[in-house]
Amino acid sequence: MTHTKTIVAQITISDATYAKLLRVGEITQQDPQAWADAILAQSAGEVIKAEGAARHARRSAIQLTD
């Protein structure tokens, strides 16, 4: 079972994006909110991973110049 947290602030999406999520829900017979959560989690993870790689590259470059 997936645990979710309810937060006070909400993320607003466009009507077009919402329509796409509803369509994906129809196609997959899954909850559009679950899709949105999964997509956001994956995208956020990719950004965090890329930032970590960039930080590591900067540190490596600094060490090479020392």
Write the SSE topology.
Blueprint: H1 15-28, H2 32-65
The dominant shape is: elongated
Indicate the proportion of strand residues.
under 5%
What is the typical, i.e. mean, pLDDT?
82
Number of helical elements: 2
**Major sheet size, sense and barrel closure:** none
Reading the helices and strands in chain order gives HH
Poorly predicted regions are: none
Radius of gyration equals 18 Å
Q: Briefly note the structural class of the backbone.
A: mainly alpha
Measured between the Cα atoms of the first and last residue, the distance is: 50 Å
Helicity range of the residues? Answer: over 70%
Number of strands: 0
Short description:
By secondary structure, this protein is an all-alpha fold. Helices cover 73% and strands 0% of the residues.
Description of the structure:
There is one protein chain. The protein has helices at residues 15-28, 32-65. Helix 1 crosses helix 2. It is elongated and about 55 Å long. The protein is an all-alpha fold. It contains two helices and no strands. The chain has a domain at 35-66.
Which labels suit this protein?
66 residues; mainly alpha; 73% helix; 0% strand; elongated
